[in-house]
Amino acid sequence: MLRIAVACCLVLLAPLAHAGERILRKEGVIHAGASEIFNCFRTGEGLKKLWGVAHADVDFKVGGMIRTNYDPAGRIGDDSTIGNAILAYEPDRMLAMRPIAPVGAEDFVKKICETGWSVIRLEPLTPTSTRLSVTMAGFGEGELYDKAYAFFEQGNAWTLMKMQETMNDRTREARNERVAKAWKSMLGTWEFSQKTADGGTFRGRSVIASLFGGRVIFASGFLGNDKSMGQHSHFTAGVDPQSGEWMVWNFDQDGSFTRGPVYFDGERMVVDWTTANAADGKLIDYRVEYTFHEDGDYTVKVLTPAEKSGSRGTVAEVRYKKVGDAVQPASGAEGPAK
């Protein structure tokens, strides 16, 4: 009966319609992409994976129906079938449903299914981690609603845990270790120098250091020409407690702020570099790729935001060579050349 009740009233909610209205909300991080999770709601096979049901049938459209049955000996359409009418959805972000109680449900389950509704929200934290909220609304006053609230408080927590167990990416720890190993190989002071199209010189320095046994990385970047360099950026990298994955947080000399996940795409380490522009607050989605060479050098390639086709242009591509060990995260500023 627990599973019937949980699936019947699994929900996420928009802001309260009335002050003081009683709601029930559960949330947690699932280590899977938002699109991957949302697509499970589109098909019966996906729902069987996501919720662990024995049988599922989905007509995924506004006004359509999601029907499930936890009984392996049962079938869709029998008295144990649980229904959820689809009220609205936003792909990869939200699903709103109205629960329909099975024939044999307890009175308090039938009561909340008469007045309740549900919304499932997905908030991408990284390409492979999503915050999923489960909220339930429509509770009135009285003993039946009190029983329903207590019952679903336990049931919705179980449902969220089930989705985490089912969907969590088991490679996350290994991926984090690979990123940590890459940062370790980059500790030190690095420089590049290359000619520009107008015959000038484009130079840069990056000072990378670690704290707390490598759990936190600090890096300061400096850019300039053959005469001088000034600090261009300062970033911190570490494992984000929310997503459980490596992230970068960066400020540049203009005050623009960047946040993005760090992961490997094949042999390249990638940062999805989403910048909040200091001038107007506009979000700009760059991509930064690190390629590691056998001689110990590494190349940084900064790519423009993706076009509708998915293609990107190149903002800059430079190859860093190690020139010394990092002593302090913010060291490395250079004045006018002598």
Structure description:
Strands 8-9-10-11-12-13-14-15-16-17 form a ten-stranded antiparallel β-barrel. It has a seven-stranded antiparallel sheet with strand order 1-7-6-5-4-3-2, sandwiched between helices. Strand 15 (283-292) and strand 16 form a beta hairpin. It has helices spanning 2-8, 34-40, 44-51, 107-115, 143-167, 172-185, and strands at residues 24-30, 55-58, 65-69, 82-90, 94-100, 117-126, 129-137, 188-195, 201-211, 216-224, 229-239, 246-252, 257-265, 268-276, 283-292, 298-303, 314-324. Residues 1-19 and 329-333 have low confidence and may be disordered. With 338 residues, the protein is α+β, with helices and mostly antiparallel strands. The chain starts with a helix and ends in a 14-residue tail after the last strand. The protein has six helices and 17 strands. The chain folds into two domains: 2-170, Alpha-D-Glucose-1,6-Bisphosphate, Chain A, domain 4 (2-Layer Sandwich); 174-324, Calycin beta-barrel core domain (Lipocalin), CATH 2.40.128.20. Helix 1 packs across helix 5 (143-167) and helix 4 packs across helix 5 (143-167).
How many DSSP helices? 6
Radius of gyration: 26 Å
Global shape = elongated
CATH class of the largest domain reads Alpha Beta
Q: Describe the sheet with the most strands.
A: 10 strands, antiparallel, barrel
The domain tally reads: 2
Total beta strands: 17
Can you summarize this structure?
With 338 residues, the protein is an alpha+beta fold.
Feature tags:
Lipocalin, 6 helices, 2 domains, Alpha-D-Glucose-1,6-Bisphosphate, Chain A, domain 4, seven-stranded antiparallel beta sheet, 338 residues, alpha+beta
